[in-house]
Fold this protein.
Amino acid sequence: MLNKAVGLGTLDAKIIFYIRNCPPLAHYQNLTSVKALVTDEIADIARETGNHWRKIFNVYAKLLFEISPEQFTSWQNLRDSALLQAESDHCLLFSAPDFSGADCSGADCSGANLLSAKPSQKLHIILGKGYAEQLGFCNDCIWLSHDFAINIDLGVIICPYFDYRQLSNKKITQLSGLIQQLTAHQVQSKVDG
């Protein structure tokens, strides 16, 4: 069964983030595909939904700025001018991860067994241990700490939910390091493969 991607940003992104919920506004609740945001849409979502989504977007922007700050003056500038917009390399999905495009090479590609498939060139980051448990990913990952788990072969990271209390600045730095390590591993695997 194929899972249709639903969320914000662009599916061309190299790093796909997965979140259990979406903004509690009819427009987003009724999405059936991935939609790029436009300028000021993040501010509108935050204004209409309150603090929760403002925090998610702020943490997301802080992480992306730490990974690759080159063209931005601050994480706020990244958030306001590029986050999840059409020309960005960002994707936040409300739908569950779908590894049906992975090369299973004879492996069972259903359910959590997808984690035994060969990796794609995308990095998949699941926000929240509870969501990862619901999806059946926790047992197929190596837990590096209470907060972070990885499956190197498939390019999956489980991290704390995008909230200041759960993903502090220190943990954002840790996650940035994990992303850089797994990205380097994927590049090396592609060269070696």
